[in-house]
Amino acid sequence: MRTTISLRLLAAGALTAALSACGGVSHPSSAATGATSPSRAATARAEAPGVSKVIVFMVENHSLSEMRAGMPKTYAFARQHSYATDYSAIRHPSLPNYIAIAAGSTLGIADDANPSAHRLKGTNVFRQAKQRGRSSKVYADAMPHPCTLTNHGEYAVRHNPWAYFVRDRVACRRHDVPATRLAHDAAAGTLPDVGFVIPDVMHDAHDGTLAQADRWISRRITTLTAGPDWTSGRLAIVVTADEDDTHHGNKVLTVVATHGQRPRVVRRPLDHYSLSGFLSEVIGAKPLRHAKTAPSLAKAFGVEVS
To answer: What is the tens place of the pLDDT at every residue in 196-215?
Structure first.
């Protein structure tokens, strides 16, 4: 009986093959139908590495509407990937927002004073990275030497959060570096697991224009997206602003981009504590302080963390 069934199956298979060759049987391919087979989709998801690195670009003192209108290249990048329309800074002025991103709290800071006035000792995402064997780096534009603790020309120390944590000074002097190092690290695939790119006061639109900020940031985004960290899918690029111009409810444009993602507009309320939590999550650490209860940026943007 088994032999008879096998022979019948073989005969049926041969007939089907013959009909197919003559055009008698049509099997539309996934390319023809525009569909991807379930097995291929599952394989693609399994092969996706997930984000293990994040680079944050900071803009100064401009709102969501101002950034969309005044930064066309950056906004085009946002539309190609993902951006939020209800993302808020924490307060005014600048420094508390940078500390909030780095530490999940403003740590009581309400001004823009130098590190000598705010000798912070609490933990932060930079220290979290080191404790977990991960890397962190700040690329600060116009900074004369690593971890400069005072203003110098167009470099503003209040925009460089690592400089405020006194127990991290050794690491800061090693890894808080001038922005000229960014291109090398991007090309070599050695970007940090947690990184900040801090433009100087002309390139961040504090003293300069949004058009200047747009050119400076978009050029460096182009550098990042040409590198292996981006093309492998490991890197997330974030663009946000520390605060708005005090006239738009502190809503700022925030972009979260990964390689190959589908464009989306995120309307869920988020803030700098959400970003702080994302930085911790990328390095496998628990969110700090207020970031523990902040809405998840990764979930809102559909970002898979490895």
So the answer is: 999 999 999 999 999 999 99
Strand arrangement of the beta sheet that strand 136-140 belongs to: 176-178, 136-140, 194-198, 53-59, 235-241, 254-258, 82-84, 264-266
Q: Quick one: tokens of 263? A: 């464009």
Q: Which of 284, 224, 291 is CA-nearest to residue 258?
A: 224
Total structural domains within the chain: 1
- Residue 306 placed within a domain: no
User: Which letter, b or e, does each residue of 59-78 get, where b requires 16 or more Cβ atoms within 10 Å of its Cβ?
Assistant: bbbbbbebbbebbeebbebb
Q: What is the pLDDT of residues 265-298, one digit of tens each?
A: 999 999 999 999 999 999 999 999 999 999 999 9
What CATH number does residue 111 fall under? 3.40.720.10
Tell me which residue range forms the domain holding 104.
49-301
